[in-house]
Amino acid sequence: MINPNPRLTGRPEIALNALFRQMAGVVLLIVAALAAGSARAVIEIEITQGGDNAIPIAVVPFGGVSLDELPIDIAAIVAADLQRSGNFAPLNRADLIERPASGERPRFEDWRVAGSDFLLLGSVRRDGDGWLVEFQLYDVLQKSLMSGFRFPVTDQTLRSASHRIADEVYEQILGIPGAFNTQIAFISVEGPVGQRTYKLELADADGEGAQEMLTSPRPILSPSWAPDGVRIAYVSFENRTQSAIYIQNRERGDRTKVISRRGINGAPSFSPDGRRLALTLSDEGSPDIYVLDLDNGNARRVTDGAAIDTEPAWIDDETLVFTSDRSGGPQLYEVPASGGRASRITFEGSYNTSATVSPDGGTIAFVHGSEGRFQIATLDRSSGIFQTLTQGSLDESPTFSPNGQMILYATEKNGRGTLGAVSVDGSIVQSLTLEGGSFREPAWSPYTE
């Protein structure tokens, strides 16, 4: 890929964002807007660095029916979720000292001797055409019941119910909502140069249930979730010369073109209220930040000048962070969404781009370039503390989990694009191995009802 602007890219092969890829002359032609396709597992998540104080927990296989009768092993999914977080160390199933039934009072001393601080019991039984699932979470040290629920599910929602149970365990023990019952969107690329296929895909947070939302013989760029968790905005082209921004409904599969002006239409980002898109347009001159009202289609200009302004992200309903080269190199700036004076917020090094904001608005993650390496860093907005979290050389496209505890990002492994994840304190690192081609531009979904 040709480097369109040497001031803003440290190496030509870095795919910075929708704007610069478009400036490089990327041409798209969308041939299909597909509803969700058949599910297939594409991601294998491996913890390469865990937390120093992972909490031991026993997750007993759910009783009521045999595992052969169930479409999935609920306890195995819950244990895998907890282990993958890096915060928990589930006991090996073979090492469980006993397998008490749901509703039985555990022998806490036995579990304490076995080294477990917490215990999860559950059961599943037939309920008409579906299932009735119940579970109890116990504090072994305090010898007390912490939480327990009973709820109906179907074959299709049994996996989601397993993630919900893991979320409940995570929140009850750590005091932070879990994010296991969420999804990630990402772009996949398969095939040799000149014959590539690009897809917008969705997968559960554990990598299962991948579905194709959109497919094209040319690139798809910059997926961005709406706060309702149903709509996804992205950049595409309706012809070989003109970009456009679309919003696609992941449930129905239909899409709507929301803007396509002369020049660049790039880097969409939903506002917290879901009624506006911050984006980059260049039809009035140099690339600038705009806010598009989705109700009436009006686009209001936020920045104005000779600099390249791009990659807007919402800090809150009234404030944006974006990338600009107005200081001579790419740095991050804050600006009121209604327009006004922009304030520079990054000063560590000469290269900081691709901001994403934590759900509480307190932390900004971004790509930090130093000595030819591009890594994920964070900036605490209240204290100004800067921290580099990853150790790769081509890390980009950070995105926060909806609980703000993990950052998913694109990276490179064995010469192809893949994904990684790191905790906000850098203590937990995950490698996401994906089947098939290269993967880029992840976007973690918000919480949904």
Topology:
Layout: H1 18-23, E1 43-49, E2 55-59, H2 74-84, E3 88-90, H3 108-113, E4 118-127, E5 130-139, E6 144-153, H4 158-174, E7 183-190, E8 197-204, E9 211-216, E10 221-225, E11 231-237, E12 243-249, E13 255-259, E14 265-270, E15 276-281, E16 288-293, E17 299-301, E18 309-316, E19 319-324, E20 331-336, E21 343-344, E22 352-357, E23 363-370, E24 373-380, E25 386-388, E26 396-400, E27 406-413, E28 416-423, E29 429-434, E30 438-444
Parallel strand pairs: 2-3, 2-4
Antiparallel strand pairs: 1-29, 4-5, 5-6, 7-8, 7-30, 8-9, 10-11, 11-12, 12-13, 14-15, 15-16, 16-17, 18-19, 19-20, 20-21, 22-23, 23-24, 24-25, 26-27, 27-28, 28-29
Helix pairs in contact: 2-4
